[in-house]
Amino acid sequence: MKKFIIKRILISIPVFLGITLLVYVLASCAPGSPAEMLMGGEVNDLSEMTPEKYVEVEAKLGLDQPVIVQYGKWLLQLLQGNLGTSYRTKDAVLEMIMSRIGSTVLLTLSATCLSAVIAIVLGIMSAYKPYSLWDYISSAFSFIGASMPNFFIGMLLIYFFAVKVKILPSSGMYDSARDTSLPSLLKHMILPMTTLCFQQIGSILRQTRGSMLDVLGSDFIRTSRAQGVGEVLVVLRHGLRNALIPILTVLMGMLPFIISGAVITEQIFSWPGLGSLMVQSINSRDYPVIMGMTVFISAVVLLSNLLLDVAYGIADPRIRHSRNRS
Amino acid sequence: MQIDTAAAAAETKKEEKKRSFLRDVAERFVQHKLAVVSAVLLVIEVLLIIFLPMILKLDPITSDFMAFESAPGKGHILGTDDVGRDVFARLVYGGRVSLSVGFCSSIISLLIGVPLGLIAGYYRGAAEIIILRASEIFSAIPSMILILVVVSITGTSIVTLTCVMGVMGWTGFTKMIYGSVLSAREKEYVEAARAIGEKDRSILVRYILPNTVTPILISFTFHIASAILQESGLSFLGLGVQPPQASWGNILNGAQSISVLTYQPWRWIPAGILLLITVSAINFVGDGLRDALDVSYHR
Questions:
Q1: How many C-beta atoms lie closer than 10 Å to residue A171's C-beta?
Q2: What's the whole-number average pLDDT of chain B?
Q3: Which domains does chain B have, with CATH numbers?
Q4: Which of B41, B124, B149 would best serve as a mutation to test chain A binding (most A beta carbons within 10 A)?
Q5: Which residues of chain B make contact with A301, given a CB cutoff of 8 A?
Q6: Using CB atoms within 10 A of its CB, is residue A176 exposed (0-12), middle (13-18) or buried (19+)?
Q7: What is the rounded distance in angstroms from the CA atom of residue A106 to the CA atom of residue A97?
Q8: Do A92 and A293 touch, CB atoms closer than 8 A?
Q9: E runs forming strands in chain B
Q10: What is the DSSP code (8-state) at residue B265?
Q11: What is the DSSP letter of B241?
Q12: How far apart are the first and last CA of chain A?
């Protein structure tokens, strides 16, 4: 077991280095060198940057050395939490991320939980009576949900629920800066959350249906039915429990996809999260923020994959062994 | 004599089998009603997008100074946008852009992803490790963000956008091909080919690649659908295809304000519906192909 965990961590290290290298290469292609992106913290204004000052700071950060060494120093700064300083606001990138991450996590996590619940219920119902009318309706629905551009869903929702029937707000997180009450927050969350759900339900539903179909067709289900176990218990306790691992895998594998979706959704609903920060930064070509966020988000994805793999290894020895071999 | 008839019988049986596989596929595809309807719709759509500009005089770029933000009616079937461009013409030309960006970028992803998957699965060793790690690197960065970052550096002409999306989309194909090569390379006929001294490249191309054609075709179809969605998302954010060039995504980009949403539905609903129909049609065709081609699924 310990060997498996250590091996998984060791595999993740080169992948993380690869991500930083990729971002570093991209940052070097962007206007303004990675050095300048880090230097923002040393001087208040880049225009104050005299050539002497530049050389001084460069030497301090070790950026007058060969590229490999530079990359190393940059990486070292990254690992210490110095993701650079925004060109636009002069704030530290890490602080900007931290001030925004809460609202993104809140929105995406609640949307994912909601879609998982809906999709698993629908999926079980589909698998229980496959090829019934209900099955067709729910699979057509999941296909269309997955085919619908999320900004179009968002715009339709705004059109119906914020413009035609004025019951829900179309943007922001609270009614006003002073009113940070829970009801206000919930009211603002409904539309963006629904938008994200539309996108996510499809693939979870299909996975649930598939793995439930497999499990419900197996012998031990027939046995428990023959023993007179009630249908609800058969489906939920014996069926769902065994179908859950592949469903969870799909759910976790969706993380990058969910983040991508959040970028657009936050933009439509002016949700003050990481996604809208990303779009703002790209529009103003604020490269330190862009690069810092990219490294940060990918590290989060990588870490969550790692944790998931380890958790599986603990839960299911078969996985541990098959992955050890490969 | 006896042997002859037996051989002939075997021969005809073989013939039958060959013919009936394709017929089987076609029959199973036809059973998927939604997929058939979708395929017909897509063909009509592509024909319209190609030939309409030749039949009608459509101008998606020039402003009509007599009609800014005018409602659908005479002269402009679907009205005009904020700078007086004809929305219908923009939909048709936008369709050309959206569909071709989606298709071409998927081809690029395929051309990068398939060889890498073949190499990783067949040669194993260092190549395998490097390629798989690289694909992990690329899939840990959410695609939308990676593409946004690259596009912010390279610029957003249609050609660059297509290339960036294509290059960034290779991992799906690689992982899939890798998986099927791993199982194919252990088959007896591959071993036999190796034993009679076939070269690696010819084993890959003649014995292993044909095994992967079915999954490639299916995931290529789904990839096109998601590439179209991706391009439309980028253009919606204003970071994809730039006006005056039209794409379905950037038509919606111009309609984000509440007043346009409310009072000028012709500026965003048709483009959104076209996107929805096209992408779901492609997905349904992919689903039909999966049902029709995936033999194991039906056994």
A1: 14
A2: 85
A3: 11-298 (1.10.3720.10)
A4: B149
A5: 140-142
A6: exposed
A7: 14
A8: no
A9: none
A10: G
A11: S
A12: 16
What are B28's two structure tokens?
């199973």
Cross-chain Cβ contact A147/B140 below 8 Å: no
Tell me the DSSP string of B49-89: HHHHHHHS---SSS--TT-SSPPS-SS-TT-B-TT--BHHH
Report d(CA B7, CA A258) in Å as an integer.
Answer: 59
pTM of this structure: 0.86
DSSP characters over A197-252: HHHHHHHHHHHHHHHHHHHHTSHHHHHHHHTT--HHHIIIIIIIHHHHHHHHHHHH
Report how far residue A284's alpha carbon sits from residue A32's, in angstroms, rounded to the nearest whole number: 13
Q: How far is A225 from chain B (nearest CA, A)?
A: 26
Q: Which residues pair with A92 in a beta bridge?
A: A85
Which residues of chain A make contact with B276, given a CB cutoff of 8 A? Answer: 144, 147-149, 152
**Residues of chain A contacting B256 with CB distance shorter than 8 Å:** 155, 268
Q: Which residue has the tokens 């995936």?
A: B294
pLDDT in tens, A70-84: 788 888 888 888 888
- Minimal CA–CA distance to A260: which of B149, B131, B251, B282? B149
Distance from CA of B36 to the nearest CA of A (A): 14
Residue A155 near chain B (CB below 8 Å)? yes
All domains of chain A in start order, with CATH? 102-272 (1.10.3720.10)
Give all strands (DSSP E) within chain A, no chain letters. Answer: none
Give the closest residue to B84 by CA, choosing from B93, B75, B92.
B75
Calpha distance A70→A35 (Å, rounded): 9
pLDDT in tens, A284-304: 888 888 888 999 999 999 988
In this prediction, residue A234 carries a pLDDT of 83
ipTM, 2 dp: 0.84
Q: Given A260, A290, A301, which is nearest B152 (Cβ)?
A: A290
- How far is the C-alpha of B58 from the C-alpha of B75, rounded, in Å? 11
How far apart, in whole angstroms, are the C-alpha atoms of residue A251 and residue A203?
Answer: 9
In which region does residue A285 sit, left (phi positive, over 0), alpha (psi from -120 to 50) or beta (all else)? left
Task: Check A148 against B279: CB less than 8 A apart.
Answer: yes
Angle between helix A287-315 and A241-253 (nearest 10) = 160
Chain segment B160-189, per-residue pLDDT in tens: 999 999 999 999 899 989 988 888 888 888
The percentage of residues in chain A with a pLDDT greater than 90, rounded to a whole number, is: 20
